[in-house]
Each structure stands twice: as C-alpha cells, then as structure tokens.
User: Fold this.
Amino acid sequence: MRKTTLDMTVAENCHLTPNYSLLILQPKSISDWDNKENPFTFFDILPGQFVQVRIDQSKTTFLRRPISVNFVYPDKKELHLLVRRAGKGTEALCDIKTGDNLNVILPLGNGFSLPSEEETAIGYYPLLVGGGVGVAPLLYLGKLLRDRGINPSFLLAAKNEKDLLLIDKFKEFGTVYVSTDDGSAGTPGLVTANPALNEQWSKIYCCGPMPMMKAIARIAKTNSIPCEVSLENTMACGVGACLCCVEDTVEGHVCVCTEGPVFNTDVLKWE
Assistant:
C-alpha cells in the first residue's frame, strides 16, 4: 500500500480523561486536497493500521511515535487518534492545542482481515476485545463490519469505569460488554472472566496489554475460534529498518511494523 508524509492540523483535542486524549486531524491543505495528485486517499486506511507522528512540540522527543488509527471519516478527510499519556512524547500529544500542526507518515502496517462475502452470507459473529488504549483500532473495525451488514460485539476492559473510553461510540456499531478491574462497571475482574467469552464466536479480534492478548488467544484456541491480535511492540522507524519491534513467529523473526501489527495468533510463538 502506498504511503505518504502528510502535514495535518489538529481540528480538535478532546480530553477524554486526564490520561487520554482524542485527536481529530485534517490535512493542513484540505482546501486543495482534491486538486493535486496524492499517493493515497483516506479510503485506503484500514482498521488496525497505524501512523508515525513527529512530535515537534517536545524538544526532547526525537523519534516519531506510532499511534493506532482510531477512526476515519474519508469524505471529510478526517483522522482520529486515541492517545494515552505515557511519556514525554505522548504527553506532548495529549497537551497539543487546536490549530497546531502534526506531521504524520501513513498508512503503515497491515490491518485486521475483514470477512469474505461467503463468510458474511452464512453468518459472521465477531467479538472485538480491547483493553486500555488497545480499544483504539477496534472502533473503525466495528464500523466497517457494520457497513457489511455484520453486527459486531465489543468486549471492552479498563481498570475502572472512568477509564472506559468511547463507550457511546462503540454502542453505535454493536453490542458492548464491559469489564473493570475494580468492578465499578460491568463484570468485575479481568476481562478473561467476562461471560461474553463463553459464546462461540466466528472470530475474535483483540488489542491491548500483552498478557491480556495472550490470555484471549488461549481462550480462542481452546474453543477453536480464529483470533487476530494487534501487537504493540516498541517501534522507532515504522518501516522495518530499525528492527526494534521484531516478533518471533512460525515463519521466523519479522518486523511488527511491516508484517503486522495485526497477526493471526496461529503464527505467533507465544506458547
């Protein structure tokens, strides 16, 4: 897939919680967007892909930061990024002001696989499992599944009710199940204790902390359910040059940024 470096403007910075911000971006030159040749269109962006963001607002942040695509409005040429405050780079992103500029490389990586027409015709019942900021890529995936006439279900996990993100948006596209560590909302305890996982799903899509994804993958394997996960390995370049995101698979060591970040769990050497 063709990639481009694009200057974008922060149309809005929505502070969801003290530690999470939703950035709404548009191309800086949106007025003449359709009058020049572009290497891609917003329709090309797939759920599960990511962007590499240059953070000019932080003088001590030299490397770009990989951020999952949260949502896309192709007609409006609008890109949404969900950012968790974790270090100097993401702190600068969470504090960015409306009207500020961001330079991004996009779209990067390989996204989640969507069902074929045959799979959809016989009945396709996917469960999308997300924990923390790992819920980010699942919203656009849910939207594209709904566009295909599929009713996805979401299982969203957080430490507490305040850290549950974009719940109302997820409800626009499917049924939402919730787990919180402290029991302040939904099923108490780890996401693996949620009874939604007892159903026989057509497929499970998952993104979140590594221990959570490995546990979900084990449950899927036990129940003979295909499972895809979006890995969050540390990345620096985003194009397979630095090798810091390498993951061991049945096909050898591969770069998550180019071969992933989405993998079928059957190819991962997690056991």
Summary: The helical segments are 88-94, 117-122, 136-147, 167-171, 210-222, 256-259. Residues 210-222 form the longest helix (13 residues). The chain has three domains: 4-108, 117-229, 231-271. The mean pLDDT is 93.
